[in-house]
Amino acid sequence: MKEALWRVPVSVTLQNGMPRLFRGPYDALDFLEYEWPSHGKWHHRAIRDCRAALSGIVAAEVARASFAAACAEASLSLSDAHAAGVSDTSAKPAAKRQH
What we know:
The protein is an alpha+beta fold. It contains 3 helices and 4 strands; from the N terminus they run ββαααββ.
């Protein structure tokens, strides 16, 4: 798998109110697989698209759009990190898991 980053990171406000910064499909996939609060159509599509982006099958921005839709489906607040004024130091990045 290759690391693919989004042009604009995504900031998600978790159910506990904490912001979380996602820089690309790897961060999003890890969250979708291990910490996602609810499963639905967009959750499954986002997992598929993130895996495809990491394999180079689709553009990273396709995975970003699916991840955004999954966030909406799960009622998680999402914003562009740059537009929201979130810096790398003000939001906790998604933790990297050893697979």
